[in-house]
């Protein structure tokens, strides 16, 4: 009897433990499913945190910039900032980061225009009162509208240097992949949006969750423009390994890794590096 009693007690404990483990497993699966559902539903809010309706800055554009309108192929009219180049000088076609705007671009790129260079600073749909909602296809349309605007003003691709920061590097690489541009510079680029997301959410199946991909890694080798990449060694948002991988795909890349610079403080040290590179084109 004692042996049978002990066996019965053991079986009861095992059944109770199994039920507890099963409940814990179900709870973990539910929590994981909810987390994945939240990531899926909110991914564009996380990718485009700077989108908003505040249109007031357009009333006071930066010095020597005009507010212009870009007509996209899907029927939107977007405001952007344009500064015409002086005779014989190139024009920068620049795309800002996900929390920035054309105005922040104008501030940190100002030193690059002291020699008479022009600039078209595209402001994405959904940002600073522009109509529409941002997504990958939409930002590509915005970028193409910017390139089209410069073409309409008689500025040839061979006189245009395409550039981007962070999110804008994915847009810039898309534009430059059509060929014929004078140069391409990428500041704090990522190889793809999936790779960037995987760094922050290593437990999530981002390869099939992500709707917006920006696959710079798939097109960088085919881009015919001279390439400059600048990245902060202390970048925790987009690790410098992304730039190293991109540079390996283009042996002619001029890669500059900046000591003691992260993601949001890379602009100041990047500017003189870009200026130096522009003088070589």
Give the topology.
Blueprint lengths: L1 H46 L18 E6 L5 E7 L7 E5 L6 H8 L8 E5 L13 H17 L7 E6 L1 H10 L6 E5 L5 H8 L5 H4 L6 H4 L7 E6 L8 H9 L4 E5 L8 H12 L3
Helix pairs in contact: 3-4
Key terms for this structure?
about 280 residues; alpha/beta; Rossmann fold; 2 domains; eight-stranded mixed sheet; 8 strands; AB_hydrolase_fold; Peptidase S9 prolyl oligopeptidase catalytic domain-containing protein; transmembrane helix; Peptidase_S9_cat; transmembrane
Strand order of the largest sheet: 1-2-4-3-5-6-7-8
What's the SSE pattern? Answer: HEEEHEHEHEHHHEHEH
Helical amount among residues, as a percent range?
40-55%
The domain count comes to: 2
Radius of gyration: 24 Å
Q: Say what the CATH topology of the largest domain is.
A: Rossmann fold
DSSP E strands, number: 8
Q: Which regions are unreliable across 5 or more consecutive residues at pLDDT < 50? A: 31-37
Total helical segments: 9
Cα(first) to Cα(last) distance is 93 Å
Shape: globular
CATH architecture classification name of the largest domain: 3-Layer(aba) Sandwich
> What about the largest sheet?
8 strands, mixed
SSE class? alpha/beta
Main CATH class of the largest domain: Alpha Beta
**CATH homologous superfamily placement of the largest domain:** Alpha/Beta hydrolase fold, catalytic domain
Task: Please tell me the overall pLDDT.
Answer: 88
Strand content: 15-25%
GO molecular function, one term: serine-type peptidase activity
GO biological process, one term: proteolysis
Transmembrane segments: 20-39
Organism: Sphingomicrobium lutaoense
């Amino acid at each position: 009897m004692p042996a049978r009693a002990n066996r019965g007690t053991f079986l009861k404990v095992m059944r109770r433990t199994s039920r507890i483990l099963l409940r814990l497993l179900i709870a973990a699966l539910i929590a994981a499913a909810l987390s994945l559902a939240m990531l899926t539903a909110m991914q564009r809010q996380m990718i485009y945190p700077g989108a908003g309706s505040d249109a007031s800055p357009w009333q006071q554009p930066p010095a020597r910039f005009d507010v212009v309108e870009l007509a996209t192929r899907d029927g939107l009219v977007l405001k952007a900032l344009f500064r015409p180049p002086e005779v014989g000088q190139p024009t920068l076609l620049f795309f800002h980061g996900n929390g920035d705007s054309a105005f922040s671009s104008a501030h940190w790129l100002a030193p690059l225009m002291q020699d008479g260079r022009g600039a078209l600073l595209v402001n994405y749909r959904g940002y600073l009162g522009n109509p529409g909602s941002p997504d990958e296809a939409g930002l590509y349309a915005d970028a193409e509208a910017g390139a089209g605007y410069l073409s309409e003003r008689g500025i040839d691709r061979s006189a245009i240097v395409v550039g981007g920061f962070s999110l804008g590097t994915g847009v810039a690489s898309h534009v430059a992949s059509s060929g014929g541009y004078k140069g391409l510079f990428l500041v704090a680029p990522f190889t793809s949006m999936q790779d960037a997301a995987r760094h922050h959410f290593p437990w999530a199946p981002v390869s099939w969750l992500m709707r917006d991909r920006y696959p710079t890694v798939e097109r960088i080798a085919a881009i015919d423009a001279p390439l400059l990449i600048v990245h902060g060694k202390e970048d925790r948002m987009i690790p410098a390994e992304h730039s190293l991988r991109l540079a390996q795909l283009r042996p002619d890349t001029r890669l500059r890794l900046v000591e003691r610079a992260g993601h949001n403080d890379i602009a100041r040290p990047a500017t003189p590096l870009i200026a130096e590179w522009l003088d070589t084109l």
